[in-house]
């Protein structure tokens, strides 16, 4: 599947002098096809993290407003051939991959092999971030606050003494609330083993067992990197360290089908629909908590070598302290619906600018854009 279109709005203006010409941009995605029956043996929420074709169209439209040419290429087995034919200057990657233990890293790995530039995080980050257990081991090693956890591969493991009920059981390598419903919260060992075995069998992967975090839920987005101002279309967005902290989003799920849990069922509801979560952005939080959430989110991003953009999910523990749950280096980008888009919108960042910013940061890293000269750093003045 591949549809090329010519630029719409920016087409008659010349490209910026910092680029040789407008780019050919391929948007790479896996698409939900609800008309097709699911293959046998997959769980009911399989492929929930795939995108709708309208999201791809929105990304293409956003990129075209700046004058570039775009095409959509389906990230399936034919991707290498389609890339050779289209010869993109750069790919805008939102592909979730086709199975295996690190599917979100498949497309980045292919693009590295073909030496084609692409947006966002690279192979290692996408591989590790999909694996919530590995991610938490790295964070725990560097003293970021995570809930006590244990990975189950058979369901018969001895339960570690630090795991106190209630516990929470989820697939170690999924997203979009897959495998998460009211049965994910377990009260005793019988329920724990039953749920762990269900997850292991249905999702064909380990089950991650964690202390249940009963507090408020937040997600924190960030854009940037230390040299961002040389390439950004909006250098004014960024703090002195090169990062832009998006407003914190609180997710209230009490009125959803899965009260207290941001499940697949809750995530599937459209904004404002009955049973949809309430999205509060900016969240009403004490400045001290806000500071901690932003600080931990950026540390979590940097420790996994995430690049240019990510979203980190948090919940508060029983004592009100934030705990990192997971990082999304490929955050959803559906306008008006995905968490990162809601965060950007809440501070007046237009969807087009968010998408173009992700593209320009990548273009800068891959040498498609001349760095902008920055004024020399001011030397600290002498005290008089
Ligand atoms: N340890 C936990 N305690 C309480 N709720 C949790 C815990 N881990 C996950 N959840 C709930 O499950 C949801 C999905 O979990 P998460 O790890 O973020 O996976 P996904 O990749 O599907 O977003 C979270 O948004 C949260 O509501
Ligand atoms: Mg999550």
Question: What is shown here, in short?
Answer:
With 384 residues, this protein is α+β, with helices and mostly antiparallel strands. Helices cover 28% and strands 18% of the residues.
Q: Would you give an account of this structure?
A:
The chain is an alpha+beta fold. It has three domains: 129 residues, Rossmann fold; 64 residues, 2-Layer Sandwich (Dna Ligase, domain 1); 149 residues, ATP-grasp fold, B domain (D-amino Acid Aminotransferase, Chain A, domain 1, 2-Layer Sandwich). The protein has ten helices and 14 strands. Strand 2, helix 1 and strand 3 form a beta-alpha-beta unit. The radius of gyration is 21 Å and the shape is globular. Magnesium ion binds next to loops.
